[in-house]
Design brief:
This protein is of the alpha+beta class. The chain has one domain (12-233): Fumarylacetoacetate hydrolase, domain 2 (Alpha-Beta Complex), CATH 3.90.850.10. Helix content is 15%, strand content 32%. The chain has helices at 36-41, 101-104, 120-128, 134-137, 151-154, 183-191; strands at 12-14, 22-24, 28-32, 56-60, 65-66, 70-71, 80-82, 84-90, 108-115, 118-119, 143-144, 149-150, 161-166, 169-175, 201-203, 211-212, 218-223, 227-233. It has a six-stranded mixed beta sheet with strand order 4-3-15-8-9-12. A five-stranded mixed beta sheet has the order 6-18-17-13-14, with no helix packed on it. Strands 10-7-16 form a three-stranded antiparallel beta sheet. The longest helix is centred in the middle third of the chain and has 9 residues, at 120-128.
Length: 236
């Protein structure tokens, strides 16, 4: 069947594999309140997996990824906030049905680091009215991301940390061992709600220290010892 329009190309993220490969993005899932210190700074109680609660999930458009570091300041906000996060890239489809925790790691192709950019004023307004806050999260260029590093190269993550610097000043720093839900647990929980596919990216949540970005600010986000992404916020 022939297309009747010319559609936008699939968003792709570079892969650091020595061969110049790229990772086509299917969906972007994001996890909220996955660091207790960030939950507290946002005025929410930290999640408790032992209580069998569900993680907070939301989505961004697949084409929200930014791979060249150039971030336009978004419209309709005066409070653009940064949230540095571990990014998990899935290289296999999940089987139909609920994914077992012990099988979840087998879906992972690699890791990166990214920013979950947030129009905080729009998010706060929606929260205050008890409304969904999609417009605060799911906007154009809201997901700057590094290259994806394959699992074999990245190695174990338990002792790794996330760091964000803005204009040379450290704004956020957190240890991955402090995640409330780890990667297999998050993939297990997502599988109860969605069919996970090769090409999915999962932004795993941010540590404390979120704050504003202004036009002209330069940022550097790193998953220590593995990969980083640098960029700047463009003038309005």
């Amino acid at each position: 069947m022939q297309d009747v329009i010319t559609a936008a190309p699939v968003a792709r993220v570079p892969v650091r594999d020595g061969a110049g490969g790229s990772f086509p993005v299917h969906r972007i899932y994001c996890v909220g309140r996955n660091f207790a210190d960030h939950a507290r700074e946002m005025g929410a109680a930290p999640a408790n997996p032992a209580a069998r609660g569900r993680p907070v999930f939301f989505l961004k458009p697949a084409d929200a990824v930014v791979t060249d570091g150039q971030v336009p300041y978004p419209p309709a906000t005066c409070e653009l906030h940064h949230e540095v996060e571990l990014v998990v890239a899935l290289g296999r489809d999940a089987p139909a049905g609920e994914l077992a925790v012990e099988d979840a790691q087998g879906l992972v192709f690699g890791y990166g680091v990214g920013l979950d950019l947030t129009r905080r004023d729009l998010q706060a307004e929606a929260k205050a009215k008890g409304l969904p806050w999609d417009i605060g999260k799911g906007f154009d260029a809201s997901a700057p991301v590094s290259a994806i590093v394959p699992v074999a190269e990245a190695g174990a993550l338990e002792h790794r940390t996330l760091t964000l610097e803005v204009d040379g000043e450290r704004r956020q720093h957190g240890a991955l061992r402090d995640l409330v839900w780890d990667v297999p647990s998050i993939l297990h929980e997502l599988s109860k709600l969605y069919r996970l596919r090769a090409g999915d990216l999962v932004f795993m949540g941010t540590p404390a220290g979120v704050g504003p970005l202004q036009p002209g600010d330069r940022f550097r986000a790193s998953l220590d010892g593995i990969v980083e992404v640098q960029g700047r916020v463009l003038p309005r």
